[in-house]
Amino acid sequence: MDLVAGARPNFMKVAPVLRVMGASPGPLCPRLVHTGQHYDEGMSAVFFRDLGIGEPDVHLGVGSGTHGQQTSRILAAYEEHLLGSSPRPAAVVVVGDVNSTMACTLAAVKLGIPVAHVEAGLRSFDRAMPEEVNRVVTDALADLLLVSEPAGEENLRREGIPEGRIRYVGNVMIDTLVSELPAACALGVPARLGLPAAGFVYVTLHRPSNVDDPVRLARVVEMLGNLGGRLPVVFPVHPRTRERLRAAGLESSLSTAPGVRLLEPLGYRESLGLMAASRLVLTDSGGVQEETSHLGVPCLTLRPNTERPVTVSLGTNTVVGEEIERVEPLVDEVLAGRYRKPQPIPGWDGHAAERVVTALVERYGGGPATPSPCDS
Ligand code: UD1
């Protein structure tokens, strides 16, 4: 069975699934495929090290490009790999919503290989987001839809997916958080950076909707500068954001703003250690909305919508929308201790990967009586 990972947010989703598969080798025979959508040390290799994922079995090395270029390169490279595989995998497992997720789904399904989608059913209902297109296409083609939050099941039912193909398994990314949190905290990253205990803001921003338009980016930079005047701001800068800050001539004003500290992209543990210790997180990432909800850290999401509504209803997330002015009063609420407290989310318990593997074995493993293809 192939397990596909391509970009940074995929690695913490495949890690626990691989670990469970490896702990009790059964009929699934996992083979890790890295598409190479992300390739820098800080965007890929550090995650493999932090999360103890072995070298990928297959590396497609596709790299960056426009959406059409990147998607078509992954599609062609993965199809070629599948055509050369003997025997072909019994199924392909894809995770999340990046271009690699959709492209590998297309390649597999066209060759008659069933696809299982981990994190199925999330919908922002905003097709201007490239990830939304990836989600809709992947779920329309997938055979087994493994759902991480309650809205996912509702969305898939509404789209007419038969009940027997939908399984609520919970959140595999929270499995990784639960197992890595002690090591992440032990690194003592805030102290190493000279940050006051629980008195700083952790920022991650990379979505095209925030960074690609120079006017919007200038407003974001101004808001971060103002925030830095109130409490320290730590911002590991995604390569896309770095590129856009430079192109808009905003990099030096942000990096010299009092209280603002720009960093290179961080590894998983360093990032988690900072997030867990922060007073407040400001983000446009999907995964960070989930991680902060589990950690109980207030999260302000700089987007008009979220495909992860449970982070708002039960977690710590507030979707700020387009109006950057809404950030300041929300920061006031957090600093005054008036921000709401989270409640537990079903299936975000550190055991989602076990449920994923059980579902995969039931559907593709041929049951316990079938000899493992690894033995042949
Ligand atoms: C991708 C995902 C997004 C995810 C994000 C996490 C899609 C459509 N988007 O966005 O959902 O939240 O990853 O990081 O799949 N670059 C590097 N080094 C790398 C990778 C990228 O420098 O290792 C630079 C390149 O200039 C590239 C740009 O970042 O053009 C954007 O990378 P890309 O993978 O196209 O999209 P992301 O913005 O990272």
Structural features, described:
There is one protein chain. The protein has helices spanning 8-23, 41-50, 67-83, 99-110, 130-141, 150-158, 172-186, 189-192, 208-211, 214-228, 239-247, 251-255, 268-277, 286-295, 310-313, 327-335, 352-364, and strands at 2-5, 31-34, 58-59, 92-95, 115-120, 144-147, 166-168, 201-204, 233-236, 260-263, 280-283, 299-301, 317-319. With 376 residues, the protein is an alpha/beta fold. It folds into two domains: 2-170 and 349-375, Rossmann fold; 178-335, Rossmann fold (3-Layer(aba) Sandwich). The strands form two sheets. Strands 3-2-1-4-5-6-7 form a seven-stranded parallel β-sheet, sandwiched between helices. A six-stranded parallel β-sheet has the order 10-9-8-11-12-13, sandwiched between helices. Helix 2 (41-50) links the parallel strand 2 (31-34) and strand 3. Helix 1 packs parallel to helix 2 (41-50) and helix 3 crosses helix 4 (99-110). The two termini are 14 Å apart. The relative contact order is 0.14. Bound molecules: uridine-diphosphate-N-acetylglucosamine (UD1). Uridine-diphosphate-N-acetylglucosamine (UD1) binds next to helix 1, helix 2, helix 5 and helix 11.
